[in-house]
Amino acid sequence: MTEKSASEIAWIGSCQIALQFVLGLPVGKAFDAGYFHHLMIVGSVIYCSSLWILSLAKPNQYYLVFFAQGVGLGVGLGLTFLPALGVAAHHFSRRRGLAIGIMTSGASIGGIIFPILLNRLLFHHGFVVGVRATAALITGLMLVANVLMRARYPETRAVSKASLRLILSDLPYMAFVLGGILIMLGLFYPIFYLQLYSVKRGISEKIAFYTISFVNAGGLFGRLIPNFLADRVGSFNVIIPVTFLTAACVLAMLGVSNSGGIIAISLLYGAMNAGFVSMTPALLAELSNNRSEIGLRMGVWFTLTAAAAMAGQPLSGALIQGNFRWSTVFAGLSLFAGGCILILSRFLLMRKRRV
């Protein structure tokens, strides 16, 4: 994609994230209605097929990469992401945060392995073989996941329209939605631009390439430790400082100019980012009145934050202008503002529980 700008390339990943989120409402309602396996099977087929189609792309064939990686993978993720999180919430109530953290730690392990694996395959065997080998591995893992996962539904599955209206009028929940919108504008900024930022700052390309693996290595701890603490002191009491620390990590990029600093920021940001992402489903479940509306609450949150998830990276890309100053400030301040709204959400929830 040498002919495309950073902002244009960012639309591919942003579209993938947005579709993963925007499908949340219909997928959440279908999940609550008992269609867990239907969603997982269809989503797995679309996701794996899109990877195989991606292997057909030629150099600078932007439209095919956008269709396969942006749209196809996004739809596949949208159909499988929420059900996979929701089914974990079904099985655990006392230590739900830790359970979801352990489950999502697989994403960090994969995030460490896959960039290194794919880079080696691309270097030694080329794009086609590299992508197809990755597609074959993921297809096998999806088959195993579909066989092993089981839902545990309550006796009453249907969610009425009145329940949706009740959710949308729930002030603590809607404040959390607003906070999520602001956070999504900056949450994924380092994932998209940290490699390019490292190269522009004169960091060796070898170190720059491994920044994503460092991010995911930090994420392994971020998915476990914050969730472990959340089960003991409360999800809000952990996710709020995690959000502010994520903002601090992003803003700290402005002062980094050597390999050690890049590695440290990658690890710390990875831990904080993963902490927020993995605690969100548990917190949404905590905000739910009963187990039958967990999927719907998650779905509404993901759908309403989708536009911010899609717009955040292209906006940051347009602000880069060579030195990354304004793009980094934009991402960091978005996270900080979102953290402030989470404080409001916690206050409203405490007031609601006292009534």
TrEMBL record:
- InterPro entries recorded: MFS, MFS_dom, MFS_trans_sf, Proton-linked_MCT
Q: Which PROSITE patterns match?
A: MFS
Q: Where in the cell is it found?
A: Membrane
Top-level taxon of origin: Eukaryota
Query: What SUPFAM superfamilies does the record point to?
Result: MFS general substrate transporter (SSF103473)
Indicate yes or no for the key word Aminoacyl-tRNA synthetase. Answer: no
Transmembrane feature ranges: 6-27, 39-57, 63-85, 97-117, 129-149, 170-192, 207-226, 238-256, 262-287, 299-320, 326-349
- What is stated as this protein's family in its record? Belongs to the major facilitator superfamily. Monocarboxylate porter (TC 2.A.1.13) family.
Please give the name of this protein: Major facilitator superfamily domain-containing protein
